[in-house]
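Aim 2 progress update. The chain analyzed this quarter is reproduced below.
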Amino acid sequence: MNNQSICAAYRNKTVMTKQELLTALNNVLNTISQDEKTFYSANLSTLAESVNQDIETREDLKSIIGENPIQRLRDQHVNHAHFMTTAMKMVDPEQIYDHVIGLYNAYTKKDITFDYCLLTLTAWKKSITLISQNKLSNIIQLYQLLIDNHGYFIQVTTDNFHLGNKINSDPEYDNVLDEFIAALLQPSLKTAENIAKKFISDGGNISDFWLKIITPALYKIGDLWENSKITVGEEHTATSLCQMVMSSYYSEVIKHVENKPTIVAITSPNELHQVGLRMLADTLELSGYPVEFLPPNSTVEQIVETIEEEEAVMLIISTTLKGNLEATKEIITKIRHHNNNKTLIIVGAKLIMATRRSETMLMPTTLSVLLMK
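Predicted structure tokens:
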């Protein structure tokens, strides 16, 4: 049977329901030994390179990946390995489920065929089998489970092509939003600042501009990048311009701070996505709450010292990437130990929407509403 026939067979294969798939993933994850996890993690580079070789030697590669650069796919293979390492360590079937759905979405939005998704999973299984000399039988079984449900992942991706990456904009501000996005892509900091200045001077406020203009603008910029309409450099520039516009209003923001309990805000270790947390910090300060916004990768000692010096009643941690979730849990444990559980810790961001909640995990948007009541 040739590769085309194999892909067609898996497309038409009877698939599980979501709950059945999560249960099956959980069962397989619980069979993976620590030795298997260690071997997989220690050989990430070798495994990824083997997958690269398997994929890149295909004669039909161009028809499968279109105009996408090989390096982008190589980077994705490494990222995949890191995600799988974390998911296996945490025994988290939902993380694997979300990750694979995300891969299918990302590939298809870049005009990479569904066949590539299946061929890549198959290449991972083959590489793991060869390099481990068939010693990682349970991890091999995990990949086989993903391969067997190729049809399911296609179905979900097709039905929810834009799921999870949209935010509704306010029609009242569509013209301003379009002008702001154009300024970000030009790129022109002066134009972006003038748009913000006019919006606020015409009766809007800083919070409204953050939430009704900057937030949907960044989502739309993200969509343009995801669909290969702009480069990653243009996406990063647009984000930087938004941060500059926000920074230009900081002197106005802090005028609203009152004698209220202090809040400390940080991103999780290795997390560089700060715009959302900065918006939340500004919103809290506009509501009178002093916020200590710590730099990325602050140490536990620095965080604890700030909490104690400022007598902070709350620590907010923003984490976006699933690969950072384990490090976030570790830093929470350490802070609780040093701080003797005196400070409420709240973790949030888009990631937490897909993660099991606890009494110490709320979305920052919910937090800001609660505090402003």
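DSSP finds 20 helices and four strands in the chain. Residues 70-90 form the longest helix (21 residues). These observations will guide the mutagenesis experiments scheduled for the next reporting period.
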